[in-house]
């Protein structure tokens, strides 16, 4: 994953109203645009989650007793950082509006492959 810290530095974590004509400028269809954004948001969510779990595993302490719950400050700081990140759908929307996403229409790629045969 490209560095999530640098990617979300200038992204406002709050949900905002969006101009629908800007949303449809790349696809000419609201539903296609939302599908692209939703797919990217799911992808981002999976990447962020796996990155978080990997970082938390580095600081995990193994204890045998259930009563001994240790507070690990590094894990707490990492968790707080990821809680403050913008929602993956907000990040995906920003990427889409700034034309940072590449996508293909499934119908076009299927018709292209049929024409080649």
Question: What's the topology here?
Answer:
Blueprint (H helix, E strand, L loop, with lengths): L3 H4 L12 H4 L6 H29 L14 H12 L3 H10 L8 H11 L1
Helix pairs in contact: 3-4, 3-5
Describe the protein.
The protein is mostly helical and 117 residues long. It has one domain (18-61, 69-110). The chain is 60% helix and 0% strand. It contains six helices and no strands. α3 packs antiparallel against α4 and α3 crosses α5. It is elongated and about 55 Å long.
State the order of secondary-structure elements, H for helix, E for strand. Answer: HHHHHH
Q: Give the total of beta strands.
A: 0
Q: How would you state the average pLDDT, rounded?
A: 80
Which regions contain 5 or more consecutive residues with pLDDT less than 50?
none
Helix content: 55-70%
Quick rundown:
The protein is an all-alpha fold and 117 residues long. The chain has six helices and no strands.
Defining traits:
117 residues, mainly alpha, 60% helix
């Amino acid at each position: 994953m490209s560095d999530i810290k640098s990617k979300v530095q200038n992204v406002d974590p709050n949900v905002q109203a969006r101009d629908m004509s800007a949303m449809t400028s790349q696809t000419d269809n609201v539903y296609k645009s939302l599908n692209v954004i939703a797919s990217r948001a799911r992808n981002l969510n999976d990447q962020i989650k796996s990155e978080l779990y990997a970082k938390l595993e580095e600081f995990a302490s193994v204890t045998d007793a259930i009563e001994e719950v240790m507070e690990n400050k590094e894990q707490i700081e990492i968790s707080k950082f990821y809680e403050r990140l913008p929602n993956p759908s907000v990040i995906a929307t920003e990427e889409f509006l700034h034309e940072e996403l590449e996508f293909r229409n499934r119908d076009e790629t299927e018709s292209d492959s049929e024409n080649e045969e």
